[in-house]
Amino acid sequence: MDLLSGNPYWQTTVAKPPVYPSLEEDIECDVLIIGGGSSGAQCAYYLCEQGLDVVVVDKRKAGHGSTIVNTSLIQYLGDKLFYELVNTFGEEKTVRHYKLCEQAITDIEEAAKKLPINAEFIRRDSLYYASYEEDITKINKDYFYMQKHGFEAEILSEDQIEKDYGFKKRMAMLIKNDAELNPYSFTLGLLEYGKQHGVRMFEETEIVGQKLEKDEAVFFTKNKSQIKAKYVIMAGGYENQEFKREKKAVLTSSYAIVTTPVKDFTGWKNRNLIWETARPYIYMRTTSDNRVIIGGLDENTIVPQERDAKLVHKRDKLLKEFNKLFPHLQVEADYYISAYYGGTHDGFPLIGIYDEMPNCYFLSGYGDNGTVYNMVLAKIIAEHITTKKSSDLELYIQTRKV
Ligand SMILES: Cc1cc2nc3c(=O)[nH]c(=O)nc-3n(C[C@H](O)[C@H](O)[C@H](O)COP(=O)(O)OP(=O)(O)OC[C@H]3O[C@@H](n4cnc5c(N)ncnc54)[C@H](O)[C@@H]3O)c2cc1C
After folding, report:
1. Tell me, what's the pLDDT at 197?
2. Which of 12, 318, 338, 350 could form a disulfide with 294 if both were Cys (CB 3.0 to 4.6 A apart)?
3. For a substitution probing ligand 1, which of 67, 274, 282, 315 has the most ligand atoms within 8 Å of its CB?
């Protein structure tokens, strides 16, 4: 899959990324994780202390799939609003989902503290503003559920928004205790942590075939090695769809830019994360070297040529939208990318378990909070592998009823 185009910023932030060998022999393991992006690394993190023999393989360099363009706003409210998910799944399941996501942010924070590479995890609140007058009702509906179920948030008036951010919007919800991180150093940090705990990582090792039996899976690499495993986690990101097309998944395209450094963020309260109710939306955050990441303006196409033909236009439009909010911050786009993006029709991420692929788990944390969803799903899968049960699996399995 032609996952992305442009010049990703995150790869410039790690001076000497760890180098892993490619697989040149036949091996066996308890758990094979296919994909050394953030989702595979999150699985390795959860499994590495369970006394299991874990192998991770990636056809690219570790962290160079979608992870390298992940803008990494670490949030739990997503594209589909709280009340919309309640309409689809009911209140109990929706609240459980958000509680798991809220916990996952804490789990990411705890993980980041242990890693040998700085993941640049910082807690930030999220400003979620009403793009249009009619969206005020939507925010109020979400705020009702947030209050009712103990999620920390407050409503900001037009005056308060102007005081804190300098721009005019009719109203907003401030969601507390979200976060930002560097997805590349987080992923490398998790893989290195895994390595310290016995995980074997092989990069530039492509899986091209498989033979699946009741008690054992055998996977074949492009350079003709075999990996025998008791369990397999498909953590191939959007490329999971190449192994098994899942009809609940929707692929689209997205865009992001990273600006030149800003000298002074005065007038942008606490450098909070910012996004909006418009669809497609734009969103923004800052980086540890004082740049601004602005993303969004998604397109429905999944044809890379069509996606990329719009890249320069999207770059300019993202910059223009940013300047409407912060006209005093004079920046240019130093980095800009277009990429495959994914969600699901019903709004929950997916764990795929299929009869014809015994002992395989498809981890597809599709949606705008992919990093958080991947943490939730990785924990559930690790629990299922080690204990043979997980009460939360039913929320995310592809056979769920809505
Ligand atoms: C532009 C953009 C912005 C985003 N912004 C956010 C955000 O703000 N917040 C958020 O939480 N999420 C965001 N996401 C989502 C987030 O990027 C993803 O959820 C997450 O990084 C994907 O990680 P992954 O490991 O699942 O996929 P990937 O990073 O793609 O990793 C999968 C790996 O599997 C490997 N692989 C695939 N097939 C094979 C094979 N046959 N053999 C061996 N290896 C294979 C690939 O090489 C790849 O490295 C964004 C995504 C995009 C594209």
Report:
1. 97
2. 318
3. 67
